[in-house]
Amino acid sequence: MADALSVVLSFPPENVAKLSAKKYEEEVHTYMKRLNQLPPTTWTKAIDKKNLLDFLNPEVNSLPYLATLRAQTDTVGKDRKAIEHLVNQCAVFFATFDPIQVRYLGSQWTELVVWLLDILPKLGISDHSTVTTAMLRLDPTAGTFTSTHLRLLRACLQAGVPSQALPILDKDIYAFPVDQRKEIPDELLSEDVELSNGFITPKSGFTIKLKPEYVLEYYLLGAHIYIGRRNFSRARLFLEYVVLHPSQQQTVSALQVEAYKKWVMVGLLAEGKSYPLPKTHGAGVMKNIRAVAKPYDVLAECFERRDWRKYQAEMDAGTQTWHEDGNLPLVKEASTALIRYRVMDLQKTYATLPVSRVAAYLGFKPEAALQYLLDVISSGHLHASIAPSHDNSAANAVLRFHELTPSMTNLTADNELAAQTKRIEDLATYVRDADRRLQLTKEYVEHQKRQRRTGPDADLADQMDLTWDAPVPGLGEEGDEDIMAS
């Protein structure tokens, strides 16, 4: 075992910081071959009555530490104390591992994450921060979509802690794992790549083979979480990703229909009206989606007309539909929001109104109307105040609408501008990477050659189409003569 331990501890070399990416690659592959030659018991057998993990530093010896954890999770059995110890060791490893080293054991890294997500609920543990820490340590952008993204969302929702997925959900997806084209040289795993899609590929082991429905489910579940947290702008974005998903022959998936239904309700809650259809939507696909989701469009029409009674009638008539769709809470919340928007619309016409007028408009008693207005004002939905009457009666109190102060408007605009600037900066990084990869393709090189030949300064002779079209079968010289004769 002493010889095995010396092999395990032989990497990284002392001069690792001075190694070039190519030399580092050679050292890693040589080390991996030596590890593979060790007997399987190396990872599970005690050394001087100590666990092999006790001899390793997860930050320095990330490769053998990961291999040891994987081997021991496979053999731990049902011993709860041993399982809890491994869970703690996983937490230490995922918080400190070397992101470069684990790129060479992507499959084992993913398997360890899957094991941890499966074992946590069995131990009654709802804290999934260890997994989000691991994902962000491997890829700080979390921008290359993997199967782990979806697994984490499912686990958090099943455990009733959806907010724990936000560190990953809040990161924008900019790429999907794809194989490198043959004409593009493979990037070394040890290279300091700017974006993670350079090392997270279908062959890397960091994800299973992805299907379109996995992506749609991820965005739909993410929208659920954002709706629950009242982050309607983010929910709208996720739902539109699903609705706008490309489809063949204008076919529509059930996930797209479900997303559209929620998209309609989110628009009513957030803006008091349906969101305008995305400019890039396919007319045929959208027509098919709306045909299935027509009851929701009917609700939206009632809402936009501020016809509360009609909305209530439609809501009651379709209770079973909303319940089966899982949207009954949203439909009921929109009913409440409709009353709020009716009050907010009054601000377009009036500066002040007696509460008695508001009560008559809403169909409330003055006391109930006064309490409702106070609640809406305190929640921040209505920028107004209530001036009490001399006799302290609810009917004679006065509702005064207030305009947004310049400072409030400027603060909101500044926050939105800062967020937009950050998104543009991130997008520019992703575009640069996409351009770099595009310029390495054969098609791009040929396009550039054609551009040089057909540019304004190119020789006219070079611009001639010199391609030769083969004769149509059955048309020889006689055929040509027949055509000319006709």
TrEMBL record:
Gene Ontology process terms (BP): ubiquitin-dependent protein catabolic process
All residue ranges annotated as the COP9 signalosome complex subunit 3 N-terminal helical repeats domain in the record: 50-280
Swiss-Prot/TrEMBL keywords: Cytoplasm
Ranges of Acidic residues composition bias in the record: 477-486
Pfam families membership: COP9_hel_rpt (PF22788)
Protein name: COP9 signalosome complex subunit 3 N-terminal helical repeats domain-containing protein
UniProt-listed InterPro entries: COP9_N, CSN3
